Amino acid sequence: MTPAPIKTIRILLPILLVCLFVQGQDSYEVSEEHPFGQANPEAPQQIKDFEKLIGLCDCLSESRNQDKSWNAPVKMTWKFKYIMNGMGVQDETIKEDNTYSGSIRQFDPDSKKWYVHYYSHPKISKQLSVWVGEKTEQGDIVLYKDSTAPNGTEGFYRLTFYDIADDGFKWVGEWTDTSEMIVYPTWKISCKKRL
């Protein structure tokens, strides 16, 4: 007959080993020590394209009216964090006007492109929009989605993160024709890092 302490050890040891294995599997996830997660060293090196954006920013968002004037700036927070055990990046915005949005960002090593899947509220996305792009030699992150202008001209809706620094960044959404000679900004955001 096995003594009670040894039986307890035999029961608890496999449970402890499973817990240690599971803990090792998600060691790059959001934690108390790393509130925005960490980049997984096994991820493509481009996972660090968003490194300076990781954290929480206080921002001002401005969108354009139909009459081409700009609306008054709306305060918002923009949070970026590593997800999928540090293999992807997620961001979330919370605006003072009670609109919210977010994206899941994954880098594809085969195409060497970022794929960004966007969702929002209160306008619910029945199918997620996808932008595709990369970090430029100048350090900007530029993403594109096919978009036709109201007059039928083919083009793109282009999203650009620029002036990326440790203390913040800027962002602009703009329609461009396919040659990118005609550029019409419709949304701009300026952010300062809080955390």
CATH-assigned homologous superfamily: Calycin beta-barrel core domain
SSE class = mainly beta
Strand order in space, largest sheet: 1-2-3-4-5-6-7-8-9-10
Number of helices: 1
Features:
195 residues, 10 strands, Lipocalin, 1 helix, single chain, 10-stranded antiparallel beta barrel, mainly beta
Mind explaining what this structure looks like?
The protein is mainly beta and 195 residues long. It has a single domain (4-193), classed as Lipocalin, CATH 2.40.128. It has one helix spanning 4-25, and strands at residues 55-63, 74-83, 88-95, 100-108, 113-121, 129-135, 141-148, 154-165, 168-177, 183-193. It has a 10-stranded antiparallel β-barrel. A hairpin with a 2-residue loop joins β8 (154-165) and β9 (168-177). The termini are far apart. Mean pLDDT is 90; it is low at 16-23.
Summarize the SSE layout with pairings.
Blueprint: H1 4-25, E1 55-63, E2 74-83, E3 88-95, E4 100-108, E5 113-121, E6 129-135, E7 141-148, E8 154-165, E9 168-177, E10 183-193
Antiparallel strand pairs: 1-2, 1-10, 2-3, 3-4, 4-5, 5-6, 6-7, 7-8, 8-9, 9-10
Summarize the structure.
By secondary structure, the chain is mostly beta strands.
